[in-house]
Amino acid sequence: MNFKKILPVTILCLATVAAWALINARPDVARASVPPPALLVDVATARSAPVTFSVRSQGSVAPRTQTTLVAEAAGQIVAVAPAFVSGGFFRKDDVLVRIDPRNYESAVKRARAAVARAETQLATETATASYAKEDYARLQRLNPNTAPPSALALRKPQLSAAMAELQSAQADLEKAEGDLDRTVIRAPYDGLVRQKIADIGQFVNVGSQLATTFAIDIAEIRLPITQNDLQYLDVASLSAGSPLMADLSAEMGGEIITWPALITRSEGVFDADTRVLYLVAQVLDPYGLQSSATQVPLMMGTFVAAEIAGRSGGDLFVIPRQSVYRGETVWLVDEDSTIRPAQVDVVRADEDFFYISAGISEGDRYCATAVEQPLPGMKVRVSS
């Protein structure tokens, strides 16, 4: 009975002694410190250069002059020009629409007849007044005591009335001829029909809309500029009549097309909702009809991007955005391939670059690659 109790204890003791002996018999493991891996980065050299700022914006092309053609005479439209269609080009003084002129031709004939009657009446009164004056002069020679003739005796009121009647008839004739001329609707400028509203056979009244047209001499683009971007533009020169240069661009058929433009004015007030100031760019001859050079038309309604030439910023370091850590630090690479931070003075930042005036020196090497969680003294490997 005692043997059964002692056996397990003996086995446990023997196992413990064997385990202790195995642990003490194992060889020591050699320990070596492994340096952290160096980060692979691209390195660029800082070079200063003269910088002229530019401001980017965008907007839609619109005509400077747009008109709603209306009828100035009532009647049926009897003819329209081939160019009187949506998208049709026309030249200044081209006849676009003709309204039935018969009623107005009759009015002109009546007015001419009234002028002829008034002229006859005036001639009659003139002759009668001349006879009356001669008769009164003969009477005064026969009777020197005769009183001076009155205006009525010399028929001056009748003569004045005849002259007034002639002037009234002439005015009616001018109006009738003007009404007849207004049955022909002529183009007020070189332009394009945006929308045709009336067509041949339609009866129109005075004031009825016929079409919407616009001039093709100048196109305008309203470009919104923020208050922050205004400091980089010489807006004051616009008031002095000096325009700013701009380049417009748009993608057409997979190709980027550009057009030169001039910023000619500002609208002078900030938009209360968006807090932007609109500058107005102009493009001469947007459809290229007045130029012999081949030009892609800048059609109305095209959405374009604009790059406006601004002020000179002097000599600055132009550093890509990804190379500036948290918008204020550039990590420089020393000769021993370690990095250290440099606080920089940023003059301006856009979507591509930071423009730096101080904080780095000419010829400094900096990490062009964005470094995650950089530390001073961190080792880097320079990419070839």
- How many helices? The count is 5
The share of residues in helices is 25-40%
Lateral arrangement of strands in the main beta sheet:
3-12-15-14-13-16
Round the Cα radius of gyration to an integer and report it.
Answer: 47 Å
Order of helices and strands: HEEEEEEEHHEEEEEHHEEEEEEEEEEE
What is the CATH topology descriptor of the largest domain? OB fold (Dihydrolipoamide Acetyltransferase, E2P)
Write down the domain tally: 3
Question: Can you describe what's shown?
Answer:
- With 384 residues, this protein is an alpha+beta fold.
- It has helices spanning 2-25, 102-142, 156-181, 227-230, 236-239; strands at residues 39-41, 43-45, 48-63, 66-70, 75-80, 89-90, 95-99, 184-186, 191-196, 203-204, 209-215, 218-226, 244-252, 255-270, 276-284, 303-320, 324-325, 329-333, 339-343, 345-349, 353-358, 365-367, 380-382.
- The strands form 6 sheets. It has a 6-stranded antiparallel beta barrel. Strands 4-11-9-6 form a 4-stranded antiparallel beta sheet, with no helix packed on it.
- It is elongated.
Features of the shown structure:
384 residues; alpha+beta; conserved putative lor/sdh protein from methanococcus maripaludis s2 fold; Elongation Factor Tu (Ef-tu), domain 3; OB fold (Dihydrolipoamide Acetyltransferase, E2P); 3 domains; six-stranded antiparallel β-barrel; four-stranded antiparallel β-sheet; 5 helices; 26% helix; elongated
Please outline the helices and strands:
Layout: H1 2-25, E1 39-41, E2 43-45, E3 48-63, E4 66-70, E5 75-80, E6 89-90, E7 95-99, H2 102-142, H3 156-181, E8 184-186, E9 191-196, E10 203-204, E11 209-215, E12 218-226, H4 227-230, H5 236-239, E13 244-252, E14 255-270, E15 276-284, E16 303-320, E17 324-325, E18 329-333, E19 339-343, E20 345-349, E21 353-358, E22 365-367, E23 380-382
Parallel strand pairs: 1-23
Antiparallel strand pairs: 2-22, 3-12, 3-16, 4-11, 5-7, 5-10, 6-9, 7-8, 9-11, 12-15, 13-14, 13-16, 14-15, 16-21, 17-18, 18-19, 20-21
